[in-house]
Design a protein that fits this description.
The complex is a heterodimer of chains A (about 500) and B (about 120). Chain A is mainly alpha-helical and about 500 residues long. Chain A has one domain (about 15-495). Chain A has 20 helices and two strands. Chain A has helices at about 1-10, 20-40, 50-75, 95-120, 125-145, 145-165, 170-205, 210-215, 225-240, 250-255, 260-285, 290-310, 315-340, 340-370, 385, 390-405, 410-425, 425-450, 470-485, 490-495; strands at about 80-85, 90. By secondary structure, chain B is mainly alpha-helical. Chain B has helices at about 5-30, 65-85, 85-115. Classes of the chains: A mainly alpha (about 500), B mainly alpha (about 120). The interface between A and B is medium-sized, with 14 and 15 residues.
């Protein structure tokens, strides 16, 4: 009563309209994180095994469900894409696509983490909470319609990841990787922020729609500030996507971090980086693509070559896969460099199939490493086909998919990005991509050979490998996707084609 | 020189003046003061108790958690003060928003409590 009287006198502050359906995936992920904390603080007894993982997976599934509803809305020809929260977030096919990719990354990594945490005696809700919050940050990056919102999402994503990398605090490598990632990540955030300041200086706005409108309507007299901004933004995004020469942290951090966290880093975090890169560069700076395309060209070539060549000399499988994930980033950059709708759609297809491949790969590494997360050398995989034929076959599928063997999603992903590069007349880049794919095939086959064609006589048998339920489900899903999409890609291609990012001015 | 850089000239002039001023005052002091070195002047406290042990000793790590919790509520206060001033214009929307914000922070405190952080070990 008194409160009503008090409030009645004054003019109300105008709050921006928020589309609840559009922000539902974000709210579900953050809400699930809070719920996990609440459960763990208020219950006195330990909850049943796997409760936290199940809640995390359910939350991701709900997020994907709401994304499905949104997809129907934004691909409807009459309604189309829109912005919400005062032009801070864009809801288009592209955002929805990445909501699905990142939620899948969370769900699959949570399934892997379930048994890992119990094995390492670290069970608790914290890793899941961080994973959900980090994923929410990634989704903010993918939806952002404003450079400041991109930065906000990036920080939410990264800060949770720094903690996750050091989660296995009894292992010195884990702590070391967290420290390295934190110091270098903070450094790269500064670059990104400086780039945003440059772009603001050149165009007078941080809103992507306004920037695109300004660049379309005006010709800049001095482009120095804008080009400097491009370069600094590329450093920031390139770091998160682990593109060469901003990749130096990747092998160390991927190797040191708990393996399920590595799976999350390689899938969801990298997807978010490419989401921001695609929306900011391909859509917003489309007018200046002749200026930034050579930059991406150079980075893509370096990433492809360095990733494939350095992967060969590694002996630690986790480190090998870190370099291989660098070379995958190079392939996605080939799609980005094309800067056409075809290139973007190819990059999206690549990101989705890569998510399943890499989570599966690190999933197998989680299981093989055994207690203590120690056995990552090639010798741990020797003779795996005899000890665990199913697991060895699963790993072979992921490795062949990464190598780009036909009938797997990896082949089509590589085919589409290279096709997009050829159609955009980047013949040299397409050629380098194909050659580096051949080079990296050696590395994948080396692991397959170790698993199948090594005599175990004389050599001591590797550690016993258990396949728990959660990890089994995650690996099964990843294999099913990799093979089914490898044979019947039409539906996924159709989705990727309709998920081209649009840039809307803040007024709408 | 462009207008953009010219605006920054003020900053450079200010910085230069500040540097000169400090150098001038300290330099002048050095020129006119007498110099009588004495080992007592180099001790940590010229008067009072003699320092014991090395300066490089380990400090209590447990303080850092209290510092973290303090930061939590410090930041909360930073947001609540301007909110309280403008509460009338925010109306019920602001009330609910702040309720959610405080709820999330309290959740953090409850979590810390359950983890036994508030117990002095």
């Amino acid at each position: 009563m008194t409160a009503a009287l008090l409030f009645a006198q004054v003019e109300k502050v105008a709050t921006p309209k928020l589309d609840w359906a559009a922000t539902a995936p974000l709210l579900i992920l953050c809400g699930a994180a809070l719920l996990l904390l609440l459960i763990s603080s208020l219950t006195t007894s330990r909850p049943a095994r796997g409760t936290y993982a199940v809640i995390t997976v359910l939350a991701s599934a709900f997020a994907i469900g709401t994304a499905g509803v949104l997809w129907a809305r934004v691909t409807d020809a009459e309604r189309g894409a829109f912005t919400t929260a005062a032009g801070a977030l864009t809801v288009d096919g592209f955002s929805v696509f990445f909501i699905v990719v990142i939620s899948l990354g969370i769900a699959l990594s949570a399934l892997l983490a379930d048994d890992y945490l119990r094995r390492e005696n670290l069970d608790g809700p914290e890793l899941y909470v961080l994973m959900l919050l980090s994923g929410a940050g990634g989704i903010v990056m993918a939806m952002a319609n404003d450079l400041i919102v991109v930065f906000l999402g990036l920080e939410t994503l990264s800060i949770a990841l720094y903690v996750m990398a050091g989660f296995n605090r009894r292992r010195a490598e884990s702590r070391e990787s967290a420290m390295k990632y934190f110091v270098l990540g903070a450094f790269s955030s500064a670059f990104l922020l400086y780039g945003i300041a440059f772009i603001y200086g050149a165009t007078g706005s941080t809103n992507l729609g306004d920037i695109a409108g300004f660049l379309n309507a005006n010709t800049l007299e001095h482009t120095g500030l804008l080009l400097g901004g491009f370069a600094l933004l590329l450093v920031g995004f390139g770091f998160k996507a682990s593109a060469v020469p901003f990749h130096v942290w990747t092998p160390d951090v991927y190797q040191g971090a708990p393996t399920p966290v590595t799976a999350f880093m390689a899938s969801a975090s990298k997807a978010a980086a490419f989401a921001a890169l695609l929306r900011v560069f391909v859509s917003t700076f489309a007018e200046y693509r002749l200026d930034w395309q050579p930059l991406i060209w150079g980075i893509a070539v370096l990433t492809l070559v360095v990733g494939s060549v350095l992967a060969i000399v590694q002996t630690d499988v986790k480190r090998m896969m870190a370099y291989s994930s660098i070379s995958h980033a190079g392939f996605i950059l080939v799609g980005v460099q094309a800067a056409t709708a075809q290139g973007v759609s190819a990059a999206l297809f690549y990101v989705l199939s890569y998510t399943f491949m890499i989570v599966g790969t690190f999933g197998v590494a989680t299981l093989v490493s055994g207690k203590g997360d120690e056995h990552h050398g090639l010798e741990a995989y020797r003779g795996l086909s005899r000890r665990r034929p199913g697991l060895a076959l699963t790993f072979t599928v992921f490795l062949l998919a990464q190598a780009g063997v036909p009938l797997t999603s990896g082949f089509l992903a590589k085919f589409y990005v290279i096709g997009a590069a050829v159609d955009a007349h980047s013949y040299a880049l397409a050629l380098i991509a194909m050659l580096s794919s051949v080079v990296s095939a050696f590395l994948y086959l080396r692991i397959v050979v170790a698993m199948y064609m090594t005599d175990e006589e004389g050599a001591e048998p590797g550690p016993r490998v258990r396949v728990p339920l959660g990890a089994g489900v995650a690996l099964g899903l990843a294999v099913a996707f990799t093979v089914v999409v490898g044979i019947l890609p039409q539906q996924v291609v159709h989705w990727a084609d309709r998920a081209i990012p649009v840039v809307l001015a803040s007024g709408r | 020189m462009s207008d953009f850089l010219q605006a920054y000239l003020t900053v450079a002039v200010f910085g230069g003046t500040a540097g000169l001023l400090i150098a001038g005052v300290l330099g002048l002091g050095r020129l006119i003061r007498p110099s009588r070195p004495n080992p007592d002047k180099l001790t940590t406290y010229e008067s009072g108790v003699d320092p014991v042990g090395s300066g490089f000793s380990q400090s209590q790590v447990r303080y850092y958690i209290f510092a973290l919790l303090f930061v939590l509520f410090d930041v909360e206060a930073v947001f609540i003060f301007p909110w309280a001033v403008g509460l009338e214009t925010y109306s019920y929307f602001g009330l609910v928003e702040m309720g959610i914000f405080v709820f999330i922070l309290v959740l953090g405190l409850v979590y810390a409590w359950r983890k036994g952080v508030l117990r002095w070990v």
